[in-house]
Specification:
Blueprint lengths: L1 H18 L54 E5 L4 E5 L5 E9 L7 E10 L7 H6 L18 E5 L5 E3 L10 E3 L3 E3 L1 H10 L5 E5 L1
Parallel strand pairs: 1-9, 3-7, 6-8
Antiparallel strand pairs: 1-2, 2-3, 3-8, 4-5, 4-9, 5-6
Length: about 200
Amino acid sequence: MRLLVLLAAALFLTVAHAQAQVYAPYDGYDEYDGHGYDDPYSPYPPPPNYEPEPGYPEPFPERREPSTRVGRGTIVIATREHTLIYTTSEGEQFAYPIAVGREGKQWYGTTRVVSKRLHPEWRPTASMRQKNPRLPAVVKPGPANPLGTRAIYLADGLLRIHGTNDPSSIGTNASSGCFRMYREDVEELYDMVQPGTRVIVQR
């Protein structure tokens, strides 16, 4: 009898674990050499009456003092310092801790913001789903979404500044090229920056 109870408990835990799928953060930048996104700049509208689900990882901001002087209305990403600094058109500066690309997946240069997406959907490509058949066609907004609640798209390299479902990665070289931010930080930055904002990515 005890053996049957143990087997039933093990089966229940296996099923519950299989249903509680959370998709690891993934930027997709290295899967297809910067090509093959399913129209990454198209405007996916946010779902109606969207509310973040309970249990979404809350950020633990560790703001740093700005350490650079740049033109107004510019984002500077200091890769080695894992810091993003935004200087407003009025000259006020905001500094945020970020996660950057892993070794060999980092991009440097000057680009610009081309679009923004509120509550982005994550759409794994065909090649990603071929490698991992468990991936769905679309990951809706919510705690399982690797892009978090906001995504800011850059012109070069198909890179993004976005939230994350893994706040523990902030401050590390963890992504495939994109820049991850804590939830409250990316939401604040999203409200301030507009398409056309200059972005400088430094070593």
